[in-house]
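In this section we turn from sequence analysis to structure. A common task in structural bioinformatics is to predict how a protein folds when a small molecule is present, because the ligand can shape the pocket around it. The inputs are simple: the amino acid sequence and a SMILES string for the ligand, here pyridoxal-5'-phosphate. Study the lines below before reading on.
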Amino acid sequence: MRPLIAHIRLNHLRQNYQTLKAMHGGKMLAVLKANAYGHGAVRCAQALADLADGFAVAAIEEALTLREAGITQPIVLLEGVFEAAEYALVDQHRLWPVVQNAWQLEALLAHCWQHPVTVWLKMDSGMHRAGFFPHDYAPAHQALSQSPQVAAVVNMTHFACADEPHKNMTAEQMAVFDLAVADLPGDISVANSAAILAHPNAHRHWGRTGIALYGVSPLGGADSRFLPVMRLSSKVFGERVLPPGEPIGYGAAFVTPQSTRAGLIACGYADGYPRHAGTGTPVAIDGERSRLLGRVSMDMMTVQLADHHQGIGSEVELWGDVIHINEVAAAAGTIAYELLCNVKRAHFVYEE
Ligand SMILES: *Cc1c(COP(=O)(O)O)cnc(C)c1O
């Protein structure tokens, strides 16, 4: 068996959920889109089923997978439907669709609902990606709340810069949103993970936590309040000692400055490890910090072995407990979200 393993610690997931819900103070959606940020949506939903107030996914396909697995909690469709016909399935499976534009609204009102639907109505408070402009929001809200087919409207918006607390933008978006919903009934949902951590004035009724649920701080660096859920590890399956001045890997991009013990490990960019991670990106070998040497290949990469105790069979942590995924993301010029979502071909081992 190729020894690349994604250990998924479901107890960490549960603990993070409880921590985030307590920090937020209201109800909390566990965001499971993109296969639970690469962790496995069904297993994560099952692990949280007795704790979570609800789940959120991007689209109906993801919600149906959860329903088929027996998940009965509310599930919010964060992007709403992509075609009007999906409302029949939304109705049948009692999903909670986001409505973020006029055609989604009209199609929802035109659908003949068997069960009155809970709608998450999205405002564009400044991010300018999706949602009704503030001046169009109240009419949309009224159209929904006047319909006997609508059980409830949750007022929501999304922040562009919540992970950059020094910027004013979150406070500005909050002010725009608060003004536009001042006279409108319904629960409010505005906070992603970063807002839960960094913006206590932007919590309200429903939080929506994704990245922090998986144990990663959206503010960068490590945060001991959150326990890393995924630990990605592999093993050294080749070793060699090279004299000074010898290249390693594609492009001969790294040249040994001195006599070097190099270990070959089973993990590459086809597994989702970022190819842009260069020499120096941290790894941990048998629990000791070390570094990557040269370029990441498709199926393999080379790491620096520290001493004669390390060699074939040594365990290498790519990220998890010793190596924080935010360090790897920084070294690769990306964000932990992308690294987690990209993990594939690894053997997933779930630990309760
Ligand atoms: C993905 C998503 C979230 C979760 O964001 P995190 O930064 O991972 O906490 C919250 N709200 C919406 C609308 C999203 O699309």
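The first helix runs from residue 10 to 24. As an exercise, try to locate the residues that line the pyridoxal-5'-phosphate site and compare them with your own expectations.
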